[in-house]
């Protein structure tokens, strides 16, 4: 697939930009990244994980303390609720370890396929799907790879087009490209290395 090859050339070292040491920290960081930049999350997590480094600590943390630490990521009350709910279930049902299984991950509060894909791919090296965030959704539409709006259906379309070993890094490279070139309001089509392959080049859909 030419698009995949070009993105690999453009962003050869693309990797998850969240800072973490363990799968549970990756899970928490990914929950925090919803409607928030990774850079902001990485400013918050060092102190958060110094205070609450693992699932038991997060599960039984004082909710107000947790909310205060993550406040700047936005939607902090819901995020704190999801983080605690997920960690409590990890402690009670999974012996304190994040399950390396898609179906089990989806039973955790606040975890949908996007978060589960990130945790599986970067926490355990398991490519079970394609992470679809706002950048991936936007660029997939512009590149003519899907006509769907539902992230799950977009993911299914992309899984059919891409080799499984490239599922997760495809998403990361597309996110990099979305941030650097194919922005939401003013895509820089004049300096885009994918323009000749893109049906939306020169437009702003």
Please, how many helices? Answer: 11
CATH architectural category of the largest domain: Orthogonal Bundle
Beta-strand share of residues? under 5%
Tell me, rounded to a whole number, the average pLDDT. 95
Main sheet overview: none
What is the helical fraction, as a range of percent?
55-70%
Q: For the terminal residues, how far apart are their CA atoms?
A: 24 Å
Number of domains: 2
Structural overview:
The protein has helices at 2-10, 23-32, 38-51, 55-59, 63-70, 76-93, 102-105, 113-124, 134-142, 151-161, 167-180. By secondary structure, the protein is mostly helical. It has 2 domains: 2-13 and 130-197, Orthogonal Bundle (Endonuclease Iii, domain 2); 23-124, Orthogonal Bundle (Endonuclease III, domain 1), CATH 1.10.340. α1 (2-10) packs across α11, α2 (23-32) runs antiparallel to α6 (76-93) and α5 (63-70) packs across α6 (76-93). It is elongated and about 55 Å long. The model has no long low-confidence stretch (mean pLDDT 95).
Key terms:
Endonuclease III, domain 1, 205 residues, Endonuclease Iii, domain 2, mainly alpha
Task: Summarize it.
The chain is 56% helix and 0% strand. The protein is mainly α and 205 residues long.
Map the helices and strands.
Blueprint: H1 2-10, H2 23-32, H3 38-51, H4 55-59, H5 63-70, H6 76-93, H7 102-105, H8 113-124, H9 134-142, H10 151-161, H11 167-180
